[in-house]
Write a structure and sequence with these properties.
Residues 1-21 and 327-332 have low confidence and may be disordered. The longest helix has 6 residues, at 172-177. A 5-stranded mixed β-sheet has the order 1-25-24-23-22, with no helix packed on it. It has a 5-stranded mixed β-sheet with strand order 3-4-5-6-10, with no helix packed on it. The relative contact order is 0.17. With 335 residues, the protein is mainly beta. The chain is 7% helix and 42% strand.
Length: 335
């Protein structure tokens, strides 16, 4: 949002201290970006290639290993101008360059779905390229700040958050000060092309994750520092409940292969602490992992588990952080 996204709200809110019983992350690998900042969120394709990440200048990049590094894969803005946008880090230019803030592949088709804070729901074709806008509103109300996204692999349905239906990307200060509750969880059905509001009245929703059996969705509310659980199936279908209240500023949430979840947590300046919080579907805290001081940024936007690494997102760094736990140096060198 300069370029800050919805995630910068974490910096604007004062949070309480984190629990003292914390495990420290043991190893950090840096995957350098090509003269650009802000890898907010990540995705891996069905072949295990990646990470893919959206960056501050509107590009979506793909990692090709340590020798090649990151190369351009696509863009969510249909009007992006490379001469103006490449390397840019400005809210004003986001209306041209785009702002990919959340992403996920639908493995059956190879399509990459993107929540762009300016252009709404966008899909990048298999193999990359310029994205196609699928939706810019829901329920007759325009998106304000699309942010996090996940694809249900069993149905192809896409769930993403609209952090505010009242404010846009350049108005995040007003969003915070007003304690806005116009945020929404949006569902896109690729079969019918229908866009619907799955849950409304949310306060700065910045994260979404679908359960392994597709029975519920977890939504992170930054301004209320809590997680809500929306049931999709069973006797509680279409009802929601508070799953967990955080003692820090939560951002994106990602599911592990084991079926639990990592939540990115940041505390505010001057004593910035960055954490990953692993929880289960019942809201029980399973593990707390501290990333500072090795991951030296203002906040962590995403903790994305993949194989034996945790991929760390940020607003202002020129690298992707990867933490490896209890592994030898050779495993890190392979990245």
């Amino acid at each position: 949002m300069a370029l800050k996204t919805m995630s910068v709200l974490s910096v604007l809110i004062v949070f309480s201290s984190f629990p003292s019983l914390i495990l420290c992350a043991s190893k950090l690998k840096r995957l350098p970006l090509p003269s650009v900042l802000g890898p907010l969120a990540f995705a891996f394709d069905s072949k295990g290639d990646g990470p893919y990440t959206g960056v501050a200048d509107g590009r979506i990049l793909k990692y090709h290993g340590s020798k090649t590094g990151f190369l351009e894969y696509g863009q969510s803005s249909p009007i992006r101008d490379k001469k103006i946008c490449d390397g840019a880090n400005s809210v004003d230019l986001a209306t041209i360059c785009g702002k990919p803030s959340g992403m996920g592949f639908y493995d059956k088709t190879g399509e990459l779905f993107v929540a762009d804070s300016i252009f709404g729901l966008v899909v990048i074709p298999p193999g990359g390229g310029v994205g196609k806008q699928l939706a810019k509103s829901a329920g007759g109300v325009a998106f304000g700040i699309p942010d996090a996204l996940e694809v249900d692999q069993s149905t192809g349905d896409v769930y993403f958050t609209d952090a505010s239906a009242t404010y846009n990307l350049s108005q995040t200060g007003d969003l915070v000060s007003s304690k806005d509750t116009s945020g929404r969880l949006i569902k896109y059905d690729p079969k019918t092309k229908q866009v619907s509001v799955a849950l409304d009245g949310l306060s700065g929703p910045t994260g979404v994750a679908i359960s392994e059996d597709s029975s519920y969705v977890i939504v992170i509310e930054l301004l209320k520092t809590q997680a809500q659980k929306l049931w999709l199936k069973g006797p509680k279908a279409l009802t929601s409940e508070i799953l967990l209240t955080f003692t820090g500023g939560p951002d994106k949430i990602r599911r592990t292969v084991a079926g639990d979840y990592w939540v990115a947590i940041s505390t505010s300046p001057p004593n910035v602490e960055l954490f990953g919080l692993r929880i289960n579907g019942d809201g029980k805290i399973l593990e707390t992992l501290k990333f500072t001081p090795e991951f030296d940024t203002t906040l962590v936007t995403e903790v994305h588990p993949y194989k034996d690494g945790l991929y760390l997102g940020s607003l202002d760094k020129d690298f992707v952080g990867v933490f490896k736990i209890d592994l030898d140096d050779n495993s890190l060198a392979e990245l």
